Fold this protein.
Amino acid sequence: MSHPSIDENIVRAELAVKAADLRSRISELTRPVEGGATIGFGKRIGEGTTQAIQQMEDASAAKALAEVLDQVQRAQAKLDEGSYGNCDVCRQPIGEARLDFRPWSTRCMEHADA
């Protein structure tokens, strides 16, 4: 690891907790619609329209959480590879403050949106 002050066991535990939390939240957001529920968009806002809008919002939130879960899993893989703490793009060390704030960071600030 690039950052000797980072305790790998603590990071592994934090990532495991984060992954479990994300999986649980994704599962809640993507559970099937209850039987007998009707969903539709009509001219008037009613229960069906409200439920359809909520499902679209839930699907969007689940997608965002799945992206974070992918990052967490990549960070876990980097721990196993011995490359945790280095940017996936430039291979330079990721700032320790960034790793403290987001242990699942796999890119430095310069490449965070790459």
